[in-house]
């Protein structure tokens, strides 16, 4: 399974399917790794915009933020 974490500069909200082709992303084998990278991106001054998986998983910016707020710090 592959998960892609898309990121962009502060101030971006959601990205459309058309915008995805021009947005930076990093691929991971597990959802946990994709979420960990999203946390790193958000802590480094950028924004994790979307996590999308080959299995149909789709977490937008708000869902990623909620997950991080509920998860214990690493």
What does this structure look like?
This protein has 74 residues and is α+β, with helices and mostly antiparallel strands. It has one domain (3-70). It has helices spanning 31-43, 61-70, and strands at 3-9, 24-28, 46-53, 58-60. It has a 4-stranded antiparallel β-sheet. A hairpin with a 4-residue loop joins strand 3 and strand 4. It is globular, with a radius of gyration of 11 Å. The chain starts with a strand and ends with a helix. The model has no long low-confidence stretch (mean pLDDT 89).
Secondary-structure topology with pairs:
Blueprint: E1 3-9, E2 24-28, H1 31-43, E3 46-53, E4 58-60, H2 61-70
Antiparallel strand pairs: 1-2, 1-3, 3-4
Quick summary of this structure?
This protein has 74 residues and is of the alpha+beta class. The protein has one domain (3-70). The chain is built from two helices and four strands, in the order E-E-H-E-E-H.
């Amino acid at each position: 399974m592959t998960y892609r974490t898309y990121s962009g500069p502060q101030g971006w909200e959601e990205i459309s399917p058309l915008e995805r082709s021009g947005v930076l992303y990093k691929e991971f084998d597990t959802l946990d790794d994709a979420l960990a990278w999203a946390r790193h991106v958000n802590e480094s001054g950028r924004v994790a915009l979307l996590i999308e998986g080959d299995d149909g998983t789709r977490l937008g910016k708000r869902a990623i933020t909620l997950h991080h707020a509920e998860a214990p710090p690493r």
